[in-house]
Amino acid sequence: MVAGIARIGQRWEDLTMTIWPENSAEYASWVQAIGSVAAVVVTLVVMFCQFSNQRKTKEREQKELIKRYIESAISLGGGVDQKAQKLNQWASTLSLNPGDLTFMRAEVETISAALNQLPIWQIDNFEAIKTIVCLQTHAVVLVETLKTAESQWAKGINWTSGAQNKLATLIPDIQAKLPELIAIAKNY
Fold first, then answer.
1. Which of 19, 28, 65, 140 is 20 to 30 Å from 98 at the Cα level?
2. pLDDT of 86-119, one tens digit each?
3. DSSP 114
């Protein structure tokens, strides 16, 4: 065992003697070679750091974008909720003008279109996507409820009971979905 270690030591000494610089020109060559290797290593480290920073910046920007989409859905869902409550109030008191239903339907259609234009495929949270799709569906249901109410009003048919039945399930569900989205948005 000791003889083996001695042989390794001898070989190391032989190796270092053959490659160790003997004059200033060889020292300069070695310094230049070591400097070149160090420059390559430093370049690789700098490139890695830049790539890592760019990736982190892109991830942060993506999260901010997703948060804005979710916040937009919260605002639009709040608009659907306001319109549904207003329609419910109108159905309870019958205090509206003939054009009110048409005007509200146009407003809800605009909100619905904006909800449908949200790029939910970019959102990386399934619960957020599911909740936004529910809000999109509720906006469509409210538009259809308004169309039915308009049609029935024009024919002189009582539209309030049908609207109130739909709104009785629609409003609580919308109001349950909005806090879910708010909680999700806080995580971004």
1. 140
2. 999 988 887 777 789 999 999 999 999 999 999 9
3. H
The pLDDT tens digits for 9-53 are: 566 565 555 566 677 788 888 889 899 999 999 999 999 999 999
Task: Please indicate, yes or no, whether residues 67 and 30 belong to a single structural domain of this protein.
Answer: no
Same domain, 36 and 67: no
Question: Any idea what the CATH number is for the domain that residue 140 is in?
Answer: 1.20.1440
Domain that holds residue 6: 2-44
Q: Is the pTM of this model over 0.85?
A: no
Same domain, yes or no, for 88 and 35?
A: no
Question: Helix (H, G, I), strand (E, B), or coil: what is residue 134?
Answer: helix
Is 164 in the same domain as 124?
yes
Check if the beta carbon of residue 80 is closer than 8 Å to that of residue 135: yes
Gap between the Cα atoms of 182 and 188, Å rounded: 10
Report DSSP letters for 19-32, one per residue: HS--SHHHHHHHHH
Burial annotation 46-69 (CB, 10 A radius, 16+ → b, else e) = eeeeeeeeeeeeeeeeeeeebbeb
State how many domains the chain has: 2
For residues 91 and 179, membership in a common domain is answered with: yes
Q: Which of 90, 105, 101, 172 is nearest to 143 (CA)?
A: 105
In whole angstroms, give the CA distance from residue 48 to residue 54: 10
In a domain, 77, yes or no: yes
Q: Look-up: residue for tokens 């030591």?
A: 9
